[in-house]
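Format notes (please read before filing issues)

Several people have asked whether sequences and structure tokens are stored in separate files. They are not. Every record keeps both together, in the order shown below: the sequence lines, then the token lines. Line labels are part of the format and must not be stripped during preprocessing.
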Amino acid sequence: MNNLESYPPILRHPHHHYQPPNPDPVNNNDPIQDPDPVPVIDLQCLDQDKNKFDEACKDWGLFRLVNHGVPLTLLKQLQDLAKELFSMSFESKQDACTASPVAYFWGTPALTPSGTALTGDINLVEGFNVPLSQLSHFHSQLATLESIRLLLMDYGTHLSRIASTLFEAMVKKLDLNMKPSNSYLSKNTGMVRIYRYPHCCDTNVGWGMEAHTDSSVLSILNQDDEVSGLQVLKDDQWLTVKPISNTLIVNLGDMMQAISNDIYKSVSHRVKVDNHKERISICYFVFPDEDVVIESSKYKPFTYNEFRAQVQQDVKVLGYKVGLARFQLN
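Then the structure lines:
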């Protein structure tokens, strides 16, 4: 099969379809190319390096995680199977997710009921959204998808462990007085999104993902080992997050910023497409329980359910996410 046929039709000739989004208010010059400026955090040494960890959360909202305990073989198997899955025809990927908890989407980083972009702005991305809590009840007739399902059940256990360890360390460092009965980091909300970004000879036609913050508490990324693309905003400059084998990239989301009373940062990031190679990334997201009230000195009390509904409404009406600014106290 021609590789082009594996893409959704709207992504096969992106320069014919893409409508540039509103200009990014931040300087869009090429990112600074420093030798891996991203802070490195060792999961096995959080107690000893708690000040370094705290600074990364405050100043960056993102860090590279080492000694995370996820087997390298599992990370590589997931990447290899994801490439195999994406290489299938567009129609077969659509059909495989009919009446399934796993959803196939394209053209947008935010999953919508139709699986396509809510506005005319098309991001150069396709992906699968996988709710981890439903994997044990889901079986696919598609062998590759079934193989990924089995791997993700193992992977989700590892990522839940990592997220809990990091969150507990943040709560301890911030000395937050949190109600023990509330689940601010709910294992049941864990989801994985598997993304593919096409290569494009003219990288000016659009972004794999436009600049945005995540709505999660934490997001944990298994990057492509060979193809870069993730860029993070630091001090009003864009920095490329280099792909380094056997490391994970952790970024804080809007929920963590609110929980921390704005002490920690929900980092703005984006994805640039590569001139020559497509890129695969696998990202884990985790949220509070939908009905847990986030109480903060900076924001009106809100639940994640209310936050998500507001984001969806803003994207529908305005074409972009407003996020935490909607809930700020006057």
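For reference, the curators noted about this record: The CA atoms of residues 308 and 318 lie 15 Å apart. The chain has eight helices and 14 strands.
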